[in-house]
Amino acid sequence: ETRPRVPVLWLHGLECTCCSESFIRSGHPQASDIILSMISLDYDDTIMAAAGEQAEAIVEEIIRDYKGGYLLAVEGNVPLAHGGWNCIVGGRTFHSRLEEAARHARAVIAWGTCASFGCVQAARPNPTQATPISRLVSHVPVVNVPGCPPIAEVMTGILSYMLMFDRLPEVDRNLRPKIFYGQRIHDKCYRRAHFDAGQFVEAWDDEGARQGFCLYKMGCRGPTTYNACGATGWNEGLSFPIRSGHGCIGCSEDGFWDRGPFYER
Ligand code: SF4
Ligand code: SF4
Ligand code: F3S
């Protein structure tokens, strides 16, 4: 309660903004508690009321006044082709804005699969040369929080961890925090007993589908996907893709768009 709130700059590169949409729906902790009590969200060009030169000046102020003390959150990736003109913010390429903001950050959080791995923009043939944040930032730690989008409570959970313990979470070889990405969807899936028993959905809406059998033969990528969906759920634990009758498409994995097809039948 007595600790000063940590300044956060939240930049947006090539992305669709659904990571922000997910974040603001976090139920526990509530996104409003994070924003109002734990961090000082000083710049987020998607949800801030300010705009124009005064808003852009905030970025320079934070970098100057909180060198080494602010967190840089990045949603989206960086298009390097054509001199970077595929993403211009405030009259500058996103690449140059990222380089400037990351230079003195305490750490960088890469929200979503766009920022972590490239996502759909980086799918073959990747015409804009969309590039993940961790390939461009090497002098400060980068934490990847993939998912398209990431689960809201995973986003706020990772921020809470970093702020409460004043350290970065332990990460895997893809820079994903092990606390949320340490297990495969398959490891926590409630349909796992059907997988083990050899009971599979063979066609959409067949008897196996009505019985809730395993979706592996329909293309489910749960066995190779690391994320917390099976344990945490979506919409405050209400459901997740497999509970809704659809296989996992591996949205938190590197290159998931290029590993198609999503549907085996
Ligand atoms: Fe949108 Fe997915 Fe990219 Fe997030 S990771 S900005 S949800 S396309
Ligand atoms: Fe594994 Fe997918 Fe079957 Fe669940 S539905 S048990 S994640 S293959
Ligand atoms: Fe994504 Fe698979 Fe979860 S598609 S939302 S990681 S179940």
Automatic annotation (TrEMBL):
GO biological process: anaerobic respiration
Residues reported in the UniProt entry to bind [4Fe-4S] cluster 2: H186, C189, C214, C220
Principal localisation: membrane
Cytochrome-c3 hydrogenase C-terminal domain mapped to chain residues: 181-262
Annotated EC: 1.12.99.6
GO annotation, cellular component aspect: [Ni-Fe] hydrogenase complex; ferredoxin hydrogenase complex; plasma membrane
EC top class named in words: oxidoreductase
Gene Ontology molecular-function annotations: 3 iron, 4 sulfur cluster binding; 4 iron, 4 sulfur cluster binding; electron transfer activity; ferredoxin hydrogenase activity; hydrogenase (acceptor) activity; metal ion binding
Domain of life: Bacteria
Keyword 4Fe-4S: yes
Reaction(s) the record says it catalyses: H2 + A = AH2
Alphabetic keyword roster: 3Fe-4S, 4Fe-4S, Cell membrane, Iron, Iron-sulfur, Membrane, Metal-binding, Oxidoreductase, Signal
Binding site for [4Fe-4S] cluster 1: C16, C19, C114, C148
Subunit text: Heterodimer of a large and a small subunit.
Protein's name according to its UniProt entry: hydrogenase (acceptor)
First-to-last residue of the parent protein present: 50 to 314 of 369
